């Protein structure tokens, strides 16, 4: 009897290639890590690619993906994943009713089912997200809200509700797959895979789809260099006077221009960046709160706790317990 966990990834014409390949790479690298640790082949993943007729499909970026078999020929699936696409609403999916029907049946047979990006719309159409919390790519949130029985989480990178996983798509499909690896084989293996993939951060489910750093890059060209400098110097005081000096502006003019361009005061911006760094350290390092406070530029553990609760709605220790399962 084959004890491997079969990961079945469904794709179709027009699917987003990274929604398919990204999670597949995570499970493949997990196999490598498990093998390196001496686990038997039966303790690993079996990865298969499914398409409606078991044929080659043209997906995004001009790639052609070849399926292992037709979805109706697959048996004993442990984890079923359905990718999304980046098409406009008018041409959203080229997904047949037979595939939707098969997905609906499989949802009651598999250990878990997940979708990447606007693949959530497929699950919603067949009723699998009714009464569940779910997310999707920010571009398609309004389309998911059309389904009144779905509790839409607009911000999270991925969401797990029971045995159903949804994610924001593209790179977030990697985060979803890493969460599944962690669920199966522990956080150590998942972090090893993240390291092999040269990820800056293994994001957990409560991470937002857009980081403060990325949003700041989109919002202002004037302060790009300053924002990068802030990220690299969080241990410094970073008061308005020091930031204004770095930007070669008067403190008053700097505060006014920064708030106008970035939509937030300099002090609040720095706090958000520091809290994001705290989250990263809590998730990846076994450091004391005192050490984390020092690294992130907080004057004390109490100042860290207040800022963390203000931004995350919980204390650092509660956050660490949450991500540790």
Automatic annotation (TrEMBL):
Q: Name one GO molecular function term.
A: sequence-specific DNA binding
UniProt keywords (A-Z) are: Transcription, Transcription regulation
Q: List the protein's name.
A: Helix-turn-helix domain-containing protein
The protein's matches in SMART domains, at most eight in alphabetical order, are given as: HTH_ARAC
Domain named HTH araC/xylS-type is located at: 224-322
Organism this protein belongs to: Microbulbifer okhotskensis
The answer on whether this UniProt entry bears the keyword Transcription regulation reads yes
A Pfam family found in this protein is DJ-1_PfpI
């Amino acid at each position: 009897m084959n004890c491997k966990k079969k990961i079945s990834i469904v794709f179709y014409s027009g699917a987003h290639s990274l929604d398919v390949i990204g999670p597949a790479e995570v499970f493949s690298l997990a196999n490598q890590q498990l093998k390196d640790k001496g686990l038997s082949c039966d303790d690993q993943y079996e990865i298969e690619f499914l398409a409606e007729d078991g044929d080659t499909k043209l997906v995004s970026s001009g790639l052609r993906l070849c399926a292992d078999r037709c979805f109706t020929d697959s048996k004993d699936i442990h984890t079923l994943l359905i990718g999304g696409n980046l098409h406009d609403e008018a041409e959203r999916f080229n997904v047949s009713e037979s595939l939707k029907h098969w997905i609906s049946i499989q949802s009651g047979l598999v250990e878990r089912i997940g979708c990447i990006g606007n693949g959530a719309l497929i699950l919603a159409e067949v009723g699998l997200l009714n009464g569940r919390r779910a997310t999707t790519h920010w571009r398609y949130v309004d389309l998911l809200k059309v389904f009144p029985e779905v509790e839409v989480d607009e911000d999270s990178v991925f969401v797990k509700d029971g045995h159903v996983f949804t994610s924001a798509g593209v790179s977030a499909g990697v985060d979803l797959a890493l969460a599944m690896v962690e669920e199966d084989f522990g956080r150590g293996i998942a972090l090893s895979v993240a390291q092999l993939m040269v990820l800056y951060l293994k994001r957990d489910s409560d991470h937002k789809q857009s980081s403060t750093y990325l949003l700041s890059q989109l919002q202002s060209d004037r302060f790009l260099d300053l924002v990068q400098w802030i990220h690299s110097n969080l241990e410094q005081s970073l008061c308005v006077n020091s930031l204004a000096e770095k930007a070669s502006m008067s403190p008053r003019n700097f505060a006014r221009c920064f708030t106008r361009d970035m939509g937030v005061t300099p002090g609040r911006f720095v706090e958000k960046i520091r809290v994001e760094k705290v989250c990263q350290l809590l998730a990846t390092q076994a450091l004391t709160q005192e050490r984390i406070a020092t690294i992130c530029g907080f004057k004390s553990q109490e100042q860290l706790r207040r800022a963390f609760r203000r931004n995350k709605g919980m204390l650092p220790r509660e956050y660490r317990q949450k991500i540790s399962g």
